[in-house]
Design a protein that fits this description.
Layout lengths: L1 E4 L5 E4 L3 E5 L17 E9 L4 E7 L3 E8 L1 E6 L4 E5 L2 E6 L4 E6 L7 E8 L9 E6 L14 E2 L18 E3 L2 E2 L4 E6 L4 E8 L2 E5 L2 E5 L4 E5 L2 E7 L6 E8 L1
Antiparallel strand pairs: 1-20, 2-3, 3-4, 4-11, 5-10, 6-9, 6-11, 7-8, 7-10, 9-12, 13-14, 14-22, 15-22, 16-21, 17-20, 17-22, 18-19, 18-21
């Protein structure tokens, strides 16, 4: 079963310092019928104004993945990590027993756009951790063979993959027009796909669907999912998450 949620169906939150699009119930958007998809609790598409951001705040028992789409995001946490994350960087944070962090835009004149996903951990009370990695175009071009983030690797950093404490595999491919890749979904798993830019066509048992930027597909039951780039200009970039 595929459910396509268009960009326009997301909830828009507009404040002086931040513009956000919420894919699931979050903050001022309260919708019990759209609270989660499997262990995926939140997917927010944020744009922070220059010199603005989230002041230091706590989390616990959450696995948080952020991806910087444009501009630069500054991360600061009570583990001692202070760094600026340029566009193309993925950061992962296991909140576990408790962590406080801030996310700010250090630029004087440039907006930073980043998407963030929250997942339930496989077990509560893990040791908090944080790490990040910048992605290259070459490692993702027309490929869906290795996750960027993987909760199933035995050692942190294995194969260049970032590790979290959740049964989640996250991919961020870049797909050229006319190229197609296949994701073999398992019977007991869910797939969440979000289109960042460009255009794609997805085909599964339920039929064929055209996705535009900001659209998402929530997929359940076994399906050999074919994803084809259909952009008239440039490439398509999307996030695909395999979750229980």
């Amino acid at each position: 079963m595929i459910k396509v949620v268009t960009s326009a169906e997301r909830h828009t939150s507009e404040k002086e310092w931040i513009h956000s699009e919420f894919s699931f119930s979050f903050a001022d958007y309260d919708d019990p019928s759209n609270a989660h998809f499997g262990c995926l609790l939140a997917h927010n598409d944020n744009q922070l104004s220059p010199k603005q951001g989230f002041k230091k705040h706590p989390h616990h028992d959450l696995e948080i993945i952020s991806y910087v789409l444009s501009g630069t995001l500054e991360h600061n946490d009570d583990l001692g990590n202070v760094t600026r994350l340029p566009a193309g960087t993925v950061q992962v944070m296991s909140a576990g027993t408790g962590i406080s962090h801030s996310e700010t835009n250090p630029s004087e004149d440039e907006t930073v756009r980043f998407m963030q996903m929250w997942f339930l951990p496989s077990k509560p009370g893990v040791q908090p951790s944080w790490t990040s990695r910048q992605l290259s175009r070459e490692e993702r071009l027309n490929k869906l063979d290795q996750p960027v983030v993987n909760g199933r690797v035995s050692e942190p950093g294995e194969g260049g993959q970032l590790q979290i404490q959740a049964d989640v595999s996250l991919y961020i491919p870049i797909l050229e027009t006319g190229k197609a890749i296949i994701f073999d979904q398992k019977e007991e798993r869910r797939t969440y796909l979000f289109l960042i830019s460009g255009n794609i066509e997805i085909t599964c048992n339920d039929g064929t669907f055209q996705l535009e930027p900001g659209d998402a597909a929530r997929i359940r039951n076994s399906c050999d999912l074919q994803i084809k780039g259909t952009s008239s200009e440039g490439d398509a970039e999307f996030v695909l998450v395999d979750i229980p």
